[in-house]
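Why do we bother with holo predictions? Because pocket geometry can differ from the apo form. Keep that in mind while you read this record for adenosine-5'-diphosphate.
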Amino acid sequence: MIDTKIEIRNLYKVFGNSPEAAMKHVHAGISKQDLLDHHGHVLGLRDINVKIKSKRIQVIMGLSGSGKSTLIRHINRLIEPTEGEVIVDGDNVLAMSIEELRDFRRHKASMVFQRFGLLPHRTVSQNVAYGLSIQGISEGEATERSQRWIDRVGLAGFEQHFPAQLSGGMQQRVGLARALATDAEILLMDEAFSALDPLIRTDMQNILLDLQEELHKTIVFITHDLDEALRIGDEISILRDGEVIQQGDPQSIIMKPADDYISDFIKDINRGRVLEVRSIMEKANRATGPKMGIKTPLEDALQQLVNAGKDSGAIVADDGKTIGKISMVNAIAAMARPDRDDEGPRYK
Amino acid sequence: MEFFSEFPELGRGDLRDFKKAVDFGFRSFSRAYGEGIENFFDPLLQFMIWFERLLINSPWPIILAVIAGLAWLGSRSWKLVAGSVACFILIGYFGMWENTMATLAIISVATFICIGLGIPLGIWMAKSNRVQSIITPILDVMQTIPSFVYLIPVVMLLGIGKVPGLIAVCIYAAPPIVRLTNLGIRLVDEEVLEAADAFGANYKQRLWGVQIPLALPNIFAGVNQTIMMALAMVVIASMIGVRGLGVPVLQAVSNQYLALGLMNGLAIVAIAIIFDRVSQKYGQRLQAYRKGSGHD
Ligand SMILES: Nc1ncnc2c1ncn2[C@@H]1O[C@H](COP(=O)(O)OP(=O)(O)O)[C@@H](O)[C@H]1O
Ligand SMILES: [Mg+2]
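The structure, written out:
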């Protein structure tokens, strides 16, 4: 069982002049639109419950305006909630004093921003060292300690440049290195790669995944891009109008989208490449046909079946034991259309 | 009908009594506290006298060297250094050296006072919308009220001399630095500030590490304007006993000496242009990082 690092419980956020007063309408179940039209308040988040696992990448996905930025800013309390709790390692972030909160931000959770948020008057090297110098470490030592991260994100040689002299992709490397340099266990990334060109975005995703293999941070990664979410996320939560409408691992979301909104979201993805055989296999101790690992994409599985001239194959665990089987018919069916959940909605 | 053709004004007698009461009130205030206030400003007066003497009594080549040095530090441009030195040589050659030094003395002191009071005030304004809404109209009044009007109470209180002159100059010249400090801080990019917060910066680290450095180009534009406005007050200040280039200008006006007026007026213009160009160049260098051409 993997520990929960961050737990968000019954979190509500209402923007406006008297959010507390507006809360009684929210509890009564008023819609976001009605709250705005009749009471002049914006419903940012409604009853959010998310458990974020330690050392995993939790993606929060949703369209623009769905409340992603608002949600992630509650984790380090850049935004105060109207109601609810945010528990990190057993401590309630919302109950912290100003000093405790400052310490939390300095040591425990660092952040990467959509438009980079770099300090334009500081060099690359000084920017990466920023978090450390805020902790009170001397500029000299801070720069020395941050050099490792400059090298790690591939910015060696650019230490003395100013952010304005760098391309967007390189600026975000600075942003990433700055966040890593404080050795915080939690990394909050608010659409960190959304402002970048597709090719550079893929580059940055690779850098992040490589780093994660080595560092095992708890990463909260926000995106509005499904491909990015599927590529990066160990877990995905989907937000709409300030509410979580589905959460789970990428496979389960693609196999069982909770509603039409999500079906719509996932309709254009390449299912053959994203879905893995483990999602559709039938459990079995023995099976015939070509052997494949549990994480084999359907595309590759089909290719193997075709090459072998079989219409079913064996799924084997890492230790080589057969744990299930896959048939060509099921594989093709899974690639063909989303399998709407007939047992009724599992998610509110 | 009379009601519409004649404005319903206060009776003559009442009006006279009203003015008398105000004048009397202020006079007794001045009698009671004038000396105390004068004593309060005495260290400032002593400093101004010392500083003016220093400028006037220093050998002129040293002053020229200092001016050249400052121009170089500010602008890093040989052209501007050469231009500044040439201007001061001409000024000296035409017999205006001493007055120019006196003017430089009061302008420098006034500028430092404006910076010393104006920047903290601007920071305070940027921090609170309420403070901003209170101070902004005061600054408007300071900038638009005719200088002669506030010369009256200043002179009643402190008499004629350097300190009242300095106060008059400061009242007129301080608003831009306050305004531009406030504006500069308020214009700092929200996301950069959010980043500072997210990394746990406290109020001081936020102010000195992010807001002030990023507001610096604006703050500097404020300093520049403050200097220009202080120079514009030189002639008026000379009416209440401040020495410097304003004195001969006043003489020239009352005696119709065209050449004298022109020469001293041009000297003021020359100083203004030098200050302006050098400080603008300095301001540009402060922003070099924004264009991405600052380093290497
Ligand atoms: N400071 C604010 N005041 C009022 N409404 C806000 C504020 N911040 C965000 N909102 C509203 O909250 C909702 C969620 O915004 P946001 O979290 O920025 O969405 P996302 O990051 O998913 O695009 C939007 O409807 C937005 O207009
Ligand atoms: Mg956002």
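Residues A 15, 42, 44, 62, 64-70 surround adenosine-5'-diphosphate (ligand 1) (CB under 6 Å).
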